[in-house]
UniProtKB/TrEMBL annotation:
Top-level taxon of the source organism: Bacteria
Keywords carried by this UniProt record: ATP-binding, Nucleotide-binding, Transport
Full protein name: ABC transporter ATP-binding protein
Classification via PANTHER family: ABC TRANSPORTER ATP-BINDING PROTEIN, TAURINE IMPORT ATP-BINDING PROTEIN-RELATED
A GO molecular function held by the record: ATP binding
Domain named ABC transporter: residues: 10-240
One Pfam match: ABC_tran
Membrane-spanning intervals of the chain: none
Length: 268
């Protein structure tokens, strides 16, 4: 077997996922995510984006081909807590304070409690929530809950962060702020990150590359580099060079989407 390339973090080769009911979510997917890269995956609804993240997180098995993380099976990477997942729903435990929510992954890893407290303090400070450490999730806005969810994901200093439409449920302004926050955290620590989104603007703002998947079963139809300089912030969205990349992503996404039956222009 060839030596794994140290620069590649996730390697999917001929990856396919078929669910027990027969739904083929992904098929023949070849993708390399480099270490320290921020990759965005976009594609039509139901094409298998979340399924790809779940396989990379070690939460779902591949049915064809392989996917490795740092040359290892994703389940092993999950077991050593080197991967963290952020979902659209912040899933904070309502009976725990923010601090106790953020330190939970360290508790589960049986990290000594003094270390847990220091790391949770630092993670809350990173996302600007120190003064809410003792508050319960019910006292927080949606944006604050998502910040807490990011803090909980980063508290273990993961090598790989997987984000499944993390800010999709937030209003536009809060979403912009959270994207800036995510960019700041990633610029600081340069963990490998794979984010799924439905927003073309978000994809171009965040990504080093944007991978466009076809309609189900998802396979890669475009792999678009984003040559915009970093650090990037949400204000970049109005720039002409931004619009050019966004137009390319949008065109590839349109071409990937299944035809709209109400669109008369595509009927013969
Ligand atoms: N556990 C499961 N069992 C059976 N089918 C599933 C399961 N999970 C997902 N699917 C199906 O697999 C397909 C891909 O789902 P997935 O959630 O990965 O798509 P997605 O691209 O993330 O969708 P969306 O953009 O709507 O969130 C969908 O048709 C979905 O209904």
């Amino acid at each position: 077997m060839p030596e794994p390339d140290p620069a590649s973090h996730i390697e999917a080769r001929g990856l396919g996922v078929r669910f027990p009911g027969g739904v083929q979510a992904l098929s023949g997917l070849d993708l390399v995510v480099r270490r320290g890269e921020l990759l965005v995956v976009i594609g039509p609804s139901g094409c298998g984006k979340s399924t790809f993240l779940r396989v990379a997180a070690g939460l779902a098995p591949a049915s064809e081909g392989t996917l490795t993380v740092a040359g290892e099976a994703p389940e092993r990477v999950r077991a050593r807590r080197a991967v963290a997942f952020v979902f659209q729903d912040p899933t904070l435990l309502p009976w725990r304070s923010l601090h106790a929510n953020v330190r939970l992954p360290l508790e589960l890893a049986r990290v000594p409690s003094a270390e847990q407290n220091l790391a949770a303090d630092a993670a809350l400070a990173l996302v600007g929530l120190s003064e809410f450490a003792a508050a319960g999730p019910a006292a927080l806005s949606g944006g604050m809950k998502m910040r807490a969810s990011l803090a909980r994901a980063l508290v273990t200093r993961p090598e790989l962060l997987l984000l499944d439409e993390p800010f999709g449920a937030l209003d536009e302004l809060t979403r912009e702020r959270l994207n800036d926050e995510l960019l700041r955290l990633w610029e600081r620590d340069r963990f490998t990150a794979v984010a799924v989104t439905h927003s073309v603007a978000e994809a171009v703002l965040l990504g080093d590359r944007v991978v466009v998947l076809s309609a189900r079963p998802g396979r890669i139809v475009a792999d678009i580099p984003v040559p915009l300089p970093r650090p990037r912030r949400a204000a970049l969205v109005g720039a002409p060079e931004f619009a050019a990349v966004a137009a390319e992503v949008r065109a590839r996404l349109r071409a990937a989407a299944p035809p709209d039956p109400s669109d008369l222009s595509v009927r013969t």
